[in-house]
From TrEMBL:
Source taxon at top rank: Eukaryota
InterPro entries in alphabetical order: LSU (IPR039282)
Presence of the UniProt keyword Coiled coil in the record: yes
Coiled coil: 16-96
Protein name in the entry: Uncharacterized protein
GO terms of biological process kind: cellular oxidant detoxification
Entry keyword set: Coiled coil
PANTHER family assigned: PROTEIN RESPONSE TO LOW SULFUR 1
């Protein structure tokens, strides 16, 4: 028999102790793994929420951009109409006889 910490030990109890320690180590690793998994799930949920917020913001920005583009086109058309009108008036005045 072997002596471990002042106690008699047989080879079978020694292997049992090794197995118990290995089992405890595996249980500890499993618990740590489960904690890591839970943290990763929480992080994934945070990322999904951030993605949803980003997508909503993108949609709003696209909508606002579309509205601004429509306004810019309307203003450009009005500017062109006004420029054409002023050009026509200037042309008419240049071709009209001047009366003093």
């Amino acid at each position: 028999m072997m002596m471990i910490c002042g106690q008699k030990s047989s080879p079978s109890s020694s292997s049992s102790e090794v197995l118990l320690r290995r089992n405890e180590e595996l249980e500890r690793e499993l618990k740590e793994s489960l904690v890591r998994e839970e943290r990763m799930k929480e992080e994934l949920q945070r990322l999904w929420r951030r993605l949803a917020v980003s997508e909503e913001a993108e949609e709003r920005l696209c909508s606002q951009l579309g509205e601004l583009e429509a306004e810019a086109v309307a203003e450009a058309r009005e500017y062109r109409r006004r420029l054409t009108e002023l050009t026509a008036r200037l042309s008419d005045e240049q071709h009209s006889p001047v009366i003093h």
